Amino acid sequence: MSGDWYDARQGDYAMPPMPPMPPAPPLAPPDGVRAVAVAVLNLSGLGLGYLLVRRRILAAVCWAATAVLLLVALPADPDGVPGAVLVLYALFLLAVAAHGAVVGLRTRPAWPPRAPLALALGLVLLAAPAGGVVLYDSARDEAVEQMLLDRLGEADRLVTSNRGAHFESAQADYRKALTVYRDLQADHPDSRAAAEVPDRLMTFYRTVGAPYDAGNYCDALAPLRYLRTVPKAMPGTDLGVLENWPDDRLATSLYECAADALASGQTTWPDRFGELLTTFPDSEQTAKVAPAVTAAVGATEKGLRGTEPCTAVEKLKALATRIDDVPAGQADIGDALDKDARRARAGADAGTYTCGVDQYKDGAFEDAQATMNTYATGHRGSGKAALAKKFAIAAEVAQTLPAAGKHVPTNRSGGSIQVTVKNDSPDEITVLYTGPVTGSFTLKACGSCTVYPFGGTSLLGAEPCSDSGKKYPQRTIQLPVGTTYFVHRPKNDSTASAGSDTAKLESGYLYTECAYTTQGFGGTS
Fold first, then answer.
1. Which domain holds residue 76?
2. Number of H helices and number of E strands within the chain?
């Protein structure tokens, strides 16, 4: 027989009945200290309380939750762990602590055998997560420092990348960099990056103000003006020597830029000098302004004795006007500039005569006439007024008879030859003449005279000024031997053409000059 049982009632074999299961371990008596120990051990996040009461699966759940937290938190980020994750993890620890307390209340520990010892171990192990928090905060602080240093480095690159660039194109980057420096000082004053800002600002100032160091004073104006606004852009920041760093440089740049413009005849110098005088009234550069203007007036006056006196006259006029545009600020400088303006005007005024002579000699007769008429009208008491008027007469004659311009007028008058000028015209005429002597006079209209048809004098055989029955207005003048050029024109009709004649005068003769009117205006001798 085998070991199987035979059931006679059934007439068959059957398996023997299973032995009864051993009874579950009896619950331990309630122990509050043990419950607290399990709860405290679970608060470490390592599930040690569950291990104490042999709940390995629940301990693994704690390990998994803590691992997820570490994956989210590490490496440390300047922004830290998201708040939602921390809240969920804290709620999880509270839950496993509460559940561990319930389980540990009636469950005997696997180790250590005594609950007080387990509680003491749990309290010691709480230092682990607390230390982790401290280490994490330190790592996060370092991450923040690195972030700020990176931000500082980016601002530095904005500055250095624009070294040598024109200020207008680099200004936006300069403003961005300055904003970073300001924010580091204001928002993170105790950071390592903020401690580097003063040195960076020195580099910033030198980079922005580089045109000054290169001697490009006009290009340095805009960047130096900008640097003077930096203290306002960084409130509460002690800039030290940088506070007034741009001032002397800007004053020098304003002076040098204005002085160059003054010497080269540009029009920007009054504004530059004005800015210097009003912004830095007590600077060394301000004291140089009046002497520089005085020197410029003197140098321009020398041009009156050169080959281009008319150019010097115009420069002196422009100088006087622009000097008036300079806001002096200080009374003594204002008085000096007023004196320079008066001197420039006086020089231009006196140089007008020289200019007219130069225009005449250069053949610019129309300009010479206008210039000399202006001078003669404005200087009636001058010893040169009479000669200026003669130049104006000669210039007008030369516009009709260019050969007359070869004679330079003098104050000479009279001569040994009589020349009688008659007016056979219904118009009052002005007679102008130049040659060895220069002058002009007016003849009244001939009341009984008429206009000759074009070519009528030849066809009719009638000679102007030959009608013995008419009393022609006339004047006799004394002229020297030589060639005299005559021009006569209606006095009150600027649109009529001028008549002209060239007379070669010789001794022993009497000459008659006749003015008459045809369709235009002509004359014979």
1. 32-125
2. 19, 10
Q: Comparing C-alpha atoms, which of 427, 414, 424, 437 is closest to residue 470?
A: 424
**Backbone phi, psi, residue 47, to 5°:** 70, 25
Q: Omega into 480 within 30° of 0, i.e. cis?
A: no
Q: Is 496 a member of any domain?
A: yes
Contact 233, 226 (CB under 8 A): no
Helix (H, G, I), strand (E, B) or coil at 203: helix
Q: How far is CA 105 from CA 98, 142, 211, 342, 448, in A?
A: 11, 44, 82, 111, 153
Q: Say how many Å lie between the first and final Cα of the chain, rounded.
A: 183
Asked whether residue 524 carries a pLDDT value surpassing 80, the answer given is: no
Q: What is the CA radius of gyration of the chain?
A: 56
Count how many domains the chain has: 2
- The three-class DSSP label of residue 401 is coil
334 within domain boundaries: no
pLDDT: which is higher, 73 or 387 = 387
Structure tokens at 480: 């020297």
Environment class of 190 (CB within 10 Å of its CB; exposed 0-12, middle 13-18, buried 19+): exposed
Q: Is the pTM of this model over 0.85?
A: no
CA quadruple 87, 88, 89, 92: dihedral sign: positive
The pair of three-digit structure tokens given for residue 497, joined into one six-digit string: 């053409």
Please report, for residues 45, 373, 432, 464, 519, the alpha-carbon distance to residue 389 in angstroms, rounded to integers and kept in the order given: 115, 6, 12, 31, 30
55 falls within a domain: yes
> Crossing angle of helices 331-361/385-400, nearest 10°?
40
* Tokens describing residue 351: 């140089």
Pick from 502, 525, 494, 366: nearest CA to 430: 494
CATH number of the CATH domain containing 448: 2.60.40.10
Domain boundary residue, one of 125, 142, 177: 125
| Burial class of residue 365 in the structure, from the number of CB atoms within 10 Å of its CB (0-12 exposed, 13-18 middle, 19+ buried) | buried
Residue 109, pLDDT score = 60
Residue 136: what pLDDT?
53
For the stretch 113-154, pLDDT in tens is 445 655 555 555 665 565 556 555 565 666 677 788 888 899
Domain-embedded: residue 6: no
Of the residues 93, 125, 157, the one at which a domain ends:
125
